[in-house]
Amino acid sequence: MADGPTTNYRGPLVSEPRQLLARVRDVMARGGENQAQYDQITKIIATYMVAEVCSIYIRRANDRLELYSSQGLIPSAVHNTYLQIGEGIVGDIAAAGRPFALADAQAHPNFAYKPETGEELYSSLMGVPILRGGRVIGVLDVQNRTKRDYSDEEVETLQTVAMVLAELIAGGTSNENNPMAVLDEQSTKPLRIEGILLSDGLGMGRAHLHSPRVNIEKMVADDPLTEHLRLTKAFQEMHGALDEMLADAAVAESGEHKDVLETYRLIAEDAGWVKRIEEAIRTGLSAEAAVQKVQNSIRARMGQTADPYLRERVHDFDDLAHRLMTHLMGENGAPHAAVMPGEAILIARSMGPAQLLDYDATKLKGLVLEEGSPTSHVAIVARAMGIPVIGRAQDILSRVNEGDQIIVDANHGQVLVRPGVTAQTAFDESVHALEKQKERYAALVDKSAITKDGHPVELSINAGLMIDLGHLKSSGAAGVGLYRTEIPFMVRSKFPGVDEQTRLYRQVLDNVDGKPVVFRTLDIGGDKILPYWEVEAEDNPSMGWRAIRVALDRPALLRRQVRAMTRAAAGRDLHIMFPMVAEVPEFVAARALVDKELAREKERGSALPRSVRVGVMLEVPSLAFQLTALCPFVDFISVGSNDLFQFLFACDRGNPRLADRYDLLSPIVLRFLKSIVDACDAAQVPVSLCGEMAGRPLEAMALVALGFRRLSMAGISLGPVKELLLGLELAPVSAVIAAQLDAPVHSLRPAIAEIAKSQGLVP
Ligand code: PEP
Ligand code: MG
Hints:
By secondary structure, the chain is of the alpha/beta class. The longest helix has 26 residues, at 308-333. Mean pLDDT is 86; it is low at 1-15, 173-177 and 332-337. The structure holds phosphoenolpyruvate (PEP) and magnesium ion (MG). Phosphoenolpyruvate (PEP) binds at residues 482, 484, 523, 619, 640-643, 690-691.
C-alpha cells in the first residue's frame, strides 16, 4: 500500500538539530528588539521543520497563554489571541507539561478553534511545553497543512529548541523586553495559597527551594566533545560522592536512609539515562542543558503516572539530575548555591524521604509541596520529625522566590507567602503560645499520668520510623503501643529480607531503654502501598486484600517477619500484634504460625525471646461480637479506632468530605467501645486503644471515662493528653457519658467539652 505523498515526512532538521540550535542562538546573541527576535526564531524553526506555521505562546497572568509570535498564522492574531491553560491542544500541552504530536489535530476532541488565527487551514500539529525551572512558561508549536506524522526525533528537536527559547523568554530585563514581566510582578505581592494538611503545626521562615531554579548560562555548545568530557567527569564525581555518603558511618547505621541512597547509586548508573544525556549533547546542547532536557522529558513522561513506583523513581531522577548539575556547574553556579537560611521553609514539587533527612532538621520550620498525599513517605517522615507540612499547594514553586518570608499554617491548610505585618504578628503570638505549651509538657515528662481523682493511665506512643523513637524519651511514654512495621517497608525500594528486618527490629529494641514495643505485623494493602509489591487494583482496597488477609494467604511473608522479630528480641520481651483480624479463626491461624516459627528457631538452637505475647488489633467491627470467644486466645487487645469506625459508620477515613459527618464522641461509638472494655475487663485481657482518637484530649477523656487505662498515640499528642488527665476529675465525665449512652443525638461532644471547660482543662 502506497503512503500518501506527505505522510511520514522526515524533515531535514532531524539530522541537523545542531544547525537549528546554532541559528536560534545567533538570533538570541545578536539582541535587538525583542519581538523581532521572536519573529525571526519562529521563521527559522518553521523553515527547518518544513512546517507552514510555527508559533510561540507565552504564559501570562491568570493562567492565560498569549500568542506571542507566529510564522504562518494571521499576523493580527499575535498578541490578540489567548487560550486558558487546558483550553485547546496548546492549552493541553501547557496543562500536561508534555509534548503532543497530532496528524489530525482538528479531529482531536479538545481542538479549540480560534477564527482570528486562520488555523483552520492546518491539519497537523506538534507542540512542546516551554519549561523553565520545571514550570511551563509557554508552548512552542508547528503546524502543517497536510496530515503529517511527526517523528519522535522531531519532537525531541522541538523540545531542545524550546529549552533554548525558555532562556530568551525569562531573560529580558525591562518590562517591555520581558514577556515574563507580568508574572514577575505578581511574585512580590502577598499571597495565600491553599493546600492540604500533611503534618500539623505552624512554622515561619524564609523560602528555600529544594531544587532551585537553575540558570544555565550556556544552553548551546560549540564542541560536543568538550561537553561529553565534562559530563563524564561530572558523572565520576557524582558516583564518588554517592559512594562516600554510603560509606558515611551515620548513614550506614540508619536503615531508612541507607536503603534509599543505595537505590540512587544504582539508578545513577542507569545506562538509558546516561545515553539520553549523551544524545542530547550530540544535538548541540551544553552538558547542563542536556541534563535538564532529559529531566524535563522524564518528568513529562513519568510524572503523571498513577503508578506509585514510577512516581517515586521520578523523584529519584530529579534528585540525581540535581546532584549531577551540581558537579557540572562547580561551586559557583551550583544549583544548591543558595545556602539554607537559619529558619527555612522548604519548597518542593515533591521529594523522597531521604532527601528530607538530608536537611538540617534544626533549621527546618516547615515544608510545602506541590504534590504529596498524607500517606506519601515524605509526609510520614516529616510528621515523625515534627515538621509542619502542606501538600498540593498549587504552583507554589512559580509563585515563591528563594528567601521570601513564608508562614506554613498546616492546621488550616494554608501557606502565607510574603505575609503582611498583621499576619506575622498573629503568627508570633500563636508560636509564643505553642512554645509555652511545649515547656509545660516538658515539665511533665517524669510524671505518671494519673487523673486528679486517682485513676492511673498508661500512655504509649505509636511509631514506624527510628525517628519516632525520639518521642519516647522526650514525652516520658511507657513504651511503643503500636509499631507499624509496614512504614519501614514503605520507605524502602525493595522487600527487606529476614536479616535486614532482624537488624531493623533489633535497632528498635536497642533504642527503647527496655520499654515494651508492640510490633504490629505488616498491614499492607489499603492506602499502604509498597512500591515494589505488585497487586491487582481493587475497587475497595481498604476492605480488600490487606493486612492479616495477605499474611494468611502468603504465610511465608508472616513467618519471615516473625522470624526476624524473634531473632531481634532474643533474651528480651517480644510483643506481636495482628492487624485487621475479622474472626477468631484468623487469629488462631496467625498465632499458630508464630508458634511454628518459635518451635523452628528453638530446634535450630537460636536464642529465643524471654517472653512472647501475641495480641490482636480490634479494628474490624465483626471481631467485637466474638470477644468472649476471642479472649482466651489472646494476650492483649488494642483497639484500632481509625479503621474500626470507618467500618462501623461505612465512612472512608481518608475522604475529606466525610471527615466531619460522624463524630467519635457519638453515643454509638462510646457504647460500642464500652462493650469492648467491659468484655476485656471481664476476661482480664489487657486492652488499649491506639487509633488517632487516643491523642485528642476530649476523646482521651471520654476513653478513660469508659474504662480504658492504656492509650497509645502519636508522640506529639502525649504531652497535651497527659496534661489534661493530670487535671481531670473523672467521675463527672463518667456520669455524663453513662447517662447519655442511649441519647438520640449526633454527639456527646458538647456535654464533654462543657465538663472539660468547667474543670479548666480547655479554654
Ligand atoms: C487504626 O486503624 O486505628 C490503626 C491504629 O491502624 P492504622 O492507622 O495503621 O490503620
Ligand atoms: Mg488500622
